Structure formats: C-alpha cells, structure tokens
C-alpha cells in the first residue's frame, strides 16, 4: 500500500470511529420511549405523564411514547425497574414527591438518589384538607380545638406509604404537634374519599383536582389549602383559606412531579429530553391540559437537571426527619 493510500485509509478509519461515537445520539429516538409511572392509570400523576409523553413525542420526533403503570410498594417497584433498565433514553421514570420519601419509609431500599439522572421538575399540585360532612367544625381553629379535646381520637385517612395524602397528614401533625389516628387505604384515595363522604373517617388531605368537585358539591367540608396562596377556580374552592392564613404559619405543601432517566444515560440524550421538557412547558396545548387538571407548572431552575437534583436532595433530607420523628416505616 502506498503512503497516500495508507494516509487515506487511516483518515477513513478515524472518520468511521467519529461517526460511530455520535451516531446513537443522532439516531435517538428511533424506537418507542416508555415512561414508567408508579401509580394507577387515570390518577393525577398518570394524566400529567401521558400529556408530557405526547409533548416528548412531538419535540423529539419519537415514533411513540408509551406510559407503563407499575404499581406497588410505594413506587419502589417502578423505581427499581427503571434503574435496572438500559441507560439509553428509552426507559424514563415519572414520579411525584413520594420518590423523596421512600428512602426513609423503606430502610433497606436497593437504590439511592444517585441512581437517577434528573430531567426536571414539571409541575406542582396543591392539596386540600377535607373533613367529613358531620364533623362539628367549620374552620381550622375549630378543628384544632377538636383534635386537642379528642386526644388523638380523630382519624385521618391516607392512600398508603409514600402517598401524597400520607405526606400531607404527616406534615400537618408535625406542624400542629398533635397526633391523629391514621387510617391507610392501600387501594388509593378513592375508597378513602368514599369513606370520608360516608362519615367513616374524619379527615383526608387530597390533591386539589380531586377535592374541588367534592367541595363544590357540598359532599365534604374544606378546612384549608396547603399552598401559601388561595386556589383559583370555583367560588367554593376559592373561598377556602390557606393553612398559613388559618394560623399554621409557614405551612406550604405541594405534590411536585418530575422526570428521570437511569444513571449513565448519554449526556446528549439527557439534553434532548430536558429540551423537550422545557418545550412542553411553553407549549399551549400542554399548558391548557394541565391547567384543566388544576396543575401548576414549574418555571424556575427546578426545570434544570442541577436545580432538580438540588430540590430532590433537600426534600429527601426534609422528609427523612419528618418520617423518622413520626416513627413511620414500611415493611420490606
């Protein structure tokens, strides 16, 4: 082989290596993307995940985006499935605040924050504390007096370990420094809400999009909303004071929802997915769908991987203390 031929051969080899090193990123996504959701189909997190999936499909030109509901063990089964998946951008994880609490609730958990790549916090959903129709209270002050008089006899329902309703109940008890009789419903908030309406439990803290129609219909009493500002919407829900207004100063709780990928997913793929998330939050179709659900979209640095990770670490530390102080844990 002549020297010019050898040079051309060497340059060709280098070009082939360079092309092969970037080809996967340029080809992505050339097959369906799966978003694993640790909660039942039709719930608030599932609905937002499906809307986000449509936006990711549009902005990444993926053939399709499939939502897979993997329910059980407070979301840990779904999370474990994702971290064991190939880190190629074709398996993603969409979960809510419960991911930050599982480390405290499940002491022998097989994964950690570092096992995920962070793609951004998408949205927040306010909560509403509701009382059964026959409970002799009309506001937060009267409720606190009744809790004190009952000496822990009042009951508060929740949808199991790691659920938003459980976290709201724990935070409420932490702020008021009084204990309630907690009643878990492993099948979700639907049966808990049914029992609240039927007078079988006294209290339930649930997401605003579920609570609002119950409040509007007069089926439950709304005691307070968990955000620092009152909720927009119907006159009935807009009239409900915040916990802070009602004297529980500084109480601020939302169910934030975020997107993740397995650790080791290529940086260029992560960038593409984060860009798709950012595009979704500026897209009128996605915005309108979320507003119809009562979801508040995030517009700050939590949309960035760094901001998302910072929030996760802070929330994990915060909830670990609350859960430890409450003496709550889950069997494994």
Please bin the fraction of helical residues: 40-55%
Tally of contiguous helical segments: 12
Strand content: 15-25%
Question: How many separate domains?
Answer: 2
Number of strands: 10
Q: In the CATH hierarchy, what is the architecture of the largest domain at level 2? A: 3-Layer(aba) Sandwich
CATH topology of the largest domain, which one? D-Maltodextrin-Binding Protein, domain 2
Secondary-structure-based class equals alpha/beta
Return the string of H and E elements.
HEHEHEHEHEHEHEHEHEHHEH
The CATH homologous superfamily of the largest domain is termed Bordetella uptake gene, domain 1
Using only C-alpha atoms, the radius of gyration works out to: 23 Å
Major sheet size, sense and barrel closure:
10 strands, mixed
| Text of the CATH class of the largest domain | Alpha Beta
Shape assignment: globular
Distance between the termini: 67 Å
Mean pLDDT: 90
Detail the poorly predicted runs. Answer: 7-25
Tell me what you see in this structure:
Strands 1, 2, 3, 4, 5, 6, 7, 8, 9 and 10 form a ten-stranded mixed β-sheet that branches. About 6% of the residues have low confidence. The chain is globular and about 65 Å long. 42% of the residues are buried. Helix 2 packs across helix 10 and helix 6 packs across helix 12. It starts with a helix and ends in a 6-residue tail after the last helix. The protein has two domains: 165 residues, Bordetella uptake gene, domain 1 (D-Maltodextrin-Binding Protein, domain 2), CATH 3.40.190; 113 residues, Periplasmic binding protein-like II (D-Maltodextrin-Binding Protein, domain 2, 3-Layer(aba) Sandwich), CATH 3.40.190. With 332 residues, the protein is α/β, with parallel strands linked by helices.
